[in-house]
Fold these 2 entries.
Entry 1:
Amino acid sequence: MTKTVQNFEYGGFSDGHQIVISDQLTHHVFERNEATFELVSTQRPTNPSRNGHLCTMNEHYYLVSYEFGSAASEHKIIQKYTLDGEWVTSFGTPYIYDDPLFPIVFADETLIACNSEHNTIAVITNHIPAMTGYSDQGELLWQVTFPDFQSDVVKELVIEGR
């Protein structure tokens, strides 16, 4: 379950005792103590999320962050962390395009959701008619496409050579 409050994204665990808040490049983990939440840790992840999108599941949190590999086939889009802020792994194939700026822009437009009942992380990117599901270990489980999807039209405007 992920909710947006002002400029923050947060994910909570099903037991309701812990939440993770993403404040752009910093993440805060809180734990319920009777009627309040106490700060447990604050981290600056190795691969921070520019869009702040995250989800939580099974004592880990997952966030969208474009990670460059040494080859395009090694680029990843999902980062997995422990509640202590330790990076576990990265997985998920991002949109690949000749211009390296496009995959980063598309990563910023990617939403993520966790389903602890099925141990599945799902991602969908604006302007791309597909949703992809991964296991909590990063294995590709499924991908669905939306054949009737109509993306926004973006036109390039050139005036006097600019």
Entry 2:
Amino acid sequence: MPPMSRNMAPCLTCSPGASSTRMEHPDRMPIWSDNFPCRQSTSSAIDPVDVLIGTGGDWYCDICNPFQYATSIMGDPVQRKAHIKDATDFFDELSHGHLPAVSYLKPDSFGDGHPASSKLDIFEGIVQRVLDGLKAHPELAESTAFFITFDEGGGYYDSGYMQPLDFFGDGPRIPMIIVSPFTRGGHISHIYADHASFLKFIERNWHLKPLTARSRDNLPNPIAAPANLYMPLNSPAVSDLFDMFHFDRDQDHHDRDDNDR
């Protein structure tokens, strides 16, 4: 796998008791405020990003970092330094056998697996690099859950049910794989989940409150219909992904209580 550009692959980190979620574009981010800048240019000038795409050079994805829309982060050099890292920093930490409580690893636009604009084998190489790093540090792997997914369908068709979760609705299904000693092992979940499910998992695991009163992490866990497990009876609803885990550390066949987590 070729080395990743330092300015292309942000790694978003959180300390214990803190959380963040990643959305594809600021107009899908109801978690910060109503006044973040998101403007479309009417200028006829050449976009330098388009030039860089055409030359195949390294370029920064200026819509892929949620923290850049939060003045509490971007207006504070200490917060920027603490929570916005390069992917090289992530792999350096991994090579030493320790990671933050939560990290979001976003490959660059040529290696993120996005249909038509990147190469899936490079994305798979990045995933393998993380897995190899965890395998090299069993103590770290023993307490880690690695979530592998995509940001959107990118035009690939899928016939799965799409809930009208909010004003923006939801999109076609995308694959998601969890690698962890705590997963149920070979289990395929039919419970409706969404990108907000990662945030719900973090909030339940660390006993955190929802980000806002209107964000998707307020939605309940789905109650599955017997005839169609994927279509919640209590829509709108999204999973917190706990159905894919068992936290039986002492192998007494009882999951740990949330209060022990």
